[in-house]
Design goal:
Length: about 500
């Protein structure tokens, strides 16, 4: 059915919708937006934080952009309908989002406020948690508001709800204020659908808003945030250079890349540089996009780990599983610890003692064993048996996926202690530990050519929470010896 709007030009259609929104607001007796309290003044009077037990004080880098983001135009409507609030870590993004959500709820009766995250647990943390905290700390609100695990009910009939991504359930929700948290982590099709389904109702044009808070993500992995950045920063107009915010039509985009707050000190950033990879440091502390995969370690880091040392016979061996068309790697490492006079560790080194790599033969498969001679050193089984006869092997860590049969059989013979090395979270922790140990010079090697090649071939994919994964830069490059080193290093440091 054709509506009257369809017969109008785009500009006339937009103006008609504006007038309709104004009329509906008047008909319902809604409070004129121009009469809303200044958001900065209101937050500084009402939004309590536990750090001080008093309302939060906003700095210019927060207050000036905030007033612009919530500005009411001459037509009596909000100037912006979409706000992307992106700033470096420890800039109080979540607190500000929470404060704006409560400002909206308390000053617009019967409002519906949603806090959306990847899952229900995440939705109930961060911004929603800060809302509940502020209410509990407020001398009056703590008595008049009903706070539950996932909902807040205000005496003016406004309601705040923390929800997970549920695009089917949220279709046509008609909310007044929707807050999306940590949008850099919204990666999957379900997240994109949720963003689409929670779009604002045309009946609330100029009186509703979407607010996305986050710092930068990884290229190709944060489609919603990338789109906001593209529209807001790349295609938008810079309207404040000092505090780095932009405008593109009805979209406001804050994208701060510099520290502005007193606690963002040189000492703090020096500490963070020692803990994070350079790319991850730039992502969270400079709000710069990171590549989804990056070179595992700079070549110079690996070169700086070269040493000439005497052989040690007590080692841990790791085996990286081989599949058709791939190669098979075996790496043995020892651990070298030096103590001072007070028995404090001054040096803790993993030393590479042994490397062997097998390439596929014939039909693209590796021959694990020689059925006519189990001691044939041209096969992995023969080499393992030789190592166990000539070295003190305290553990053999292996990837169960391809090596279960071989290693289980050797373990039953009790030639050594064969231990399955899980390839899920434990591998991600191990890969991060190898990265840190190479960076800190705690891995020593003698320049083995195949191991060096595999280290140089490897990329890393950050997985957050102090984890990363070794990945191939491209399918034809081999990284198996680097993976085996990661497993061996983790195993010997956690025995």
């Amino acid at each position: 059915m054709t509506s009257i709007f369809d017969k109008l030009s785009p500009s006339a259609r937009m103006q008609a919708r504006v007038e309709l929104a104004k009329k509906k607001g008047k008909d319902k007796g809604q409070r004129p937006l121009s009469s809303l309290p200044d958001p900065v003044d209101w937050i500084e009077a009402n939004f309590y934080i536990p750090e001080t037990g008093e309302p939060m004080k906003l700095y210019p880098s927060q207050a000036i952009p905030l007033r612009e983001a919530l500005r009411v135009g001459e037509d009596g409507l909000f100037v912006y309908s979409t706000v992307c609030w992106s700033a470096i870590k420890k800039s109080a993004k979540s607190s500000i989002a929470a404060a704006v959500g409560l400002w909206w709820a308390f000053n617009n009766p019967w409002s519906s406020i949603k806090v959306v995250a990847n899952d229900l647990k995440q939705a109930a943390s961060r911004s929603y948690e800060y809302m509940t905290r502020a209410i509990k700390l407020h001398p009056e609100w703590s008595q008049t508001c009903k706070v539950n695990k996932y909902t807040i009910e205000l005496p003016n009939n406004s309601r705040v709800e923390a929800i997970p991504q549920d695009p089917e359930g949220e279709a046509g929700g008609g909310d007044d204020f929707v807050l999306y948290t940590e949008v850099w982590g919204w990666k999957h099709a379900r997240a994109e659908k949720m963003w689409t389904e929670s779009t604002l109702s045309p009946l609330k044009y100029g009186r509703s808003m979407r607010w996305a808070e986050s710092y930068a993500g990884r290229v190709g992995e944060s489609p919603i945030l990338e789109s906001l950045h593209e529209q807001g920063v790349k295609e938008g107009k810079l309207i404040n250079e000092e505090y780095e915010y932009y405008r593109n039509g009805r979209m406001f985009c804050l994208w701060q890349t510099r520290p502005h707050l007193p606690w963002q000190t040189v000492e703090y950033y020096d500490q963070e540089r020692a803990l994070l990879s350079p790319e991850e440091f730039d992502r969270v502390h400079s709000n710069k996009w990171a590549m989804s995969t990056m070179k595992f370690v700079p070549d110079v880091w690996w070169e700086n780990c070269y040493r000439n040392y005497e052989r040690t016979t007590e080692i841990v061996v790791a085996l990286d599983a081989a599949v058709s068309g791939d190669c098979f790697a075996m790496v043995g490492v020892s651990r070298h610890i030096v103590y001072d006079d007070d028995y404090q560790i001054v040096e803790d080194i993993t030393r590479v003692e042994f490397v062997r790599v097998w390439e596929p033969e014939g039909e693209g498969k590796i021959r694990y064993t020689n059925p006519h001679d189990v001691n044939d050193r041209s096969t992995p089984e023969g080499e393992i048996r030789w190592l166990c006869d000539n070295w003190l092997i305290t553990q053999v860590a292996y990837d169960e996926y391809q090596l279960h049969s071989l290693c289980n059989r050797l373990n039953e013979e009790r030639i050594s202690d064969f231990v399955v090395f899980p390839q899920g979270k434990q591998r991600a922790v191990a890969d991060k530990q190898l990265y840190d140990d190479i960076r800190g010079g705690r891995i020593w090697h003698k320049g083995d050519g195949e191991l060096t090649e595999h280290v140089h071939n490897a990329d890393r994919k950050e997985e957050g929470d102090n984890k990363l994964r070794l990945v191939k830069r491209k399918g034809s490059l081999k990284i198996d010896a680097c993976v085996a080193l990661s497993m061996a290093n983790y195993a010997i440091r956690n025995m």
